[in-house]
Design a protein that fits this description.
8-stranded mixed β-sheet, alpha+beta, about 70% helix
Length: about 500
């Protein structure tokens, strides 16, 4: 049972050793990247301390490096700390003589000092300002750790007394052992004498028996002796078998403990792998959901929805809204197959998406063959009208080129644009959508409805913002509910810059 408990403790120490090794590796990486000698000394001391409950020999190696560098810098604090750490390491190895030696060295030094020369060889005069900052930081560190090192010095002094007491105790124990040995020696001598007397009595009895039993044959005596020897051999064999069985039990316990440790390690690794896999899947699914959300909502609105769980409707005072639809769409649907129809719509709307993205325009929605977009929200844009007219021209030109290439297998587009204020927000819970409301949207739709094939029809309000950038033709007025008559203009081209 004790051996089994020892094996379980060994497993526990193995896990502790893994954590300790990770701490040492982290300190070694800091040591490799450190350029300050005093910091290197502290890191070497910390590494040495980390080995106190592990491989003390490795800790002594780093402690000696710290002591050598501290002596090179003439840094008394570092020398004292290194001596104290080396004392702790030798104490953990039960080498009290060496432990006392290093503790004594640490006690004799002054409390605090700062190295005269820096790691790169510069004098204090050349690095005065830098030394002031370093001193302040070192002073803070030393004040925090001074108490710990004073305690170690007290332990060192106590160890000196303990060593003297230990020596006296050992002497007393030695004397007690000598007394015990003397008593045992006397007992052994008495036993020898008793055995001699018994042997003499037996010899005498044997002689008497030989005389009394002359008729006992030599063969019978030899048989009895052989039986005695056989019994002795059988007893010895039983002892050997018991010892072998004990060893087998010990091996089985060790094997069971090792198997248990392997199972625990395997299970831990499996859990870590599953967790990492799940984290990757969660990250991948989150990325997909974020991308899907960004395809539905503007990025600012999507972020607000993720953070708050909802997005508030907002009023935007200056935006420009674009509507487009395909002329004669109903007639074209009659002779295009469903697959060809959807494919052509997808191709055209995909091109529209690419064009408006160039100008920072937000796509709002498509309804049948109608396409709606807005410039100037959610992020404001002082050139919202110019941007959307530029996009409209590219959309018109794209459809013209596609018409030349495919003829009646594609569509003819017309576009309408208006600028003003709108309210924007999310509607619905299932299959929610980001949408716009207001007279600005309604007038933009009227502009599109009163446009013509391959034409861009804009309102008078839009014209006032873009007239210096585009060639426009006035085409009359249109009546709008609650607005009265509104001027309309066709945008034909950009004004060339000389």
């Amino acid at each position: 049972m004790k051996r089994f408990t020892g094996v379980l403790l060994l497993m526990l120490f193995s896990f502790t050793g893994i954590a300790q090794n990770e701490n040492i590796q982290a300190l070694l990486r800091k040591l490799e990247t450190s350029h300050e000698d005093t910091l290197k000394v502290q890191l070497l001391i910390d590494i040495a301390n980390a080995y106190i409950k592990g491989n003390a020999n490795d800790g002594i190696k780093y402690g000696e490096q710290a002591l050598t560098l501290s002596e090179k810098l003439d840094w008394h604090t570092g020398i004292r700390k290194a001596n104290t750490t080396l004392g702790d390491l030798y104490k953990s190895k039960n080498q009290y003589g060496k432990a006392v030696k290093y503790y004594s060295k640490g006690i004799k030094l002054p409390s605090v000092s700062v190295p005269v020369v820096s790691g790169d060889g510069k004098s204090n005069r050349e690095k005065l300002e830098e030394e002031k900052i370093q001193k302040e930081r070192l002073q803070r560190e030393l004040e925090q750790k001074e108490a710990a090192y004073r305690k170690r010095q007290q332990e060192a002094a106590a160890l000196l007394n303990q060593q003297s007491e230990l020596t006296e105790q050992q002497k007393l124990e030695l004397e007690e052992r000598q007394k015990d040995l003397l008593l045992k020696s006397e007992e052994i001598q008495a036993q020898k004498e008793a055995i001699a007397e018994t042997q003499a009595a037996l010899e005498k009895t044997a002689e008497e028996k030989l005389l009394a039993q002359e008729q006992l044959s030599v063969a019978e005596a030899e048989q009895q002796l052989q039986e005695a020897r056989l019994n002795a051999l059988m007893h010895e064999k039983m002892l050997q078998e018991a010892e072998i069985e004990d060893k087998k039990k010990e091996r089985r316990i060790i094997l069971l403990a090792a198997s248990l440790m392997v199972v625990v390690l395997a299970f831990t690794l499996y859990v870590l792998l599953i967790q990492r896999k799940n984290n990757k899947l969660i990250s991948k699914e989150k990325k997909k959901s974020d991308e899907l959300l960004l395809n539905i909502l503007p990025i600012e609105v999507a972020n607000e929805l993720k953070e708050k769980g909802e997005a508030e409707a907002k009023l935007y005072n200056e935006v420009t809204v674009l509507f487009s639809d395909f002329v004669g769409f109903t007639n074209i649907v009659e002779y295009l197959s469903p697959q060809d129809l959807v494919t052509e719509l997808h191709t055209c709307f995909k091109a529209f998406d690419s064009i408006i993205s160039k100008y920072g325009i937000e796509k709002i929605k498509t309804v049948g063959d109608a396409y709606m977009a807005v410039s100037g929200l959610p992020a404001s844009n002082v050139e919202h009208a110019i941007s959307i007219v530029n996009a409209a021209l590219e959309i018109r030109d794209f459809m013209k080129q596609r018409r030349k290439k495919l003829g009646d297998k594609t569509f003819t587009v017309r576009l309408g644009i208006n600028r003003g204020s709108v309210v924007a927000g999310i509607v619905g819970v299932r299959k929610f959508a980001y949408d716009l409301w207001g007279d600005t949207v309604n007038i933009a739709a009227r502009m599109e409805q009163n446009s013509e094939s391959d034409k861009i029809n804009i309102s008078g309000a839009t014209y006032e913002l873009v007239k210096d950038h585009f060639i426009c033709e006035h085409r009359g007025k249109i009546y709008a509910k609650n607005k009265g008559e509104i001027d309309m203009y066709f945008v034909t081209d950009r004004i060339s810059k000389k």
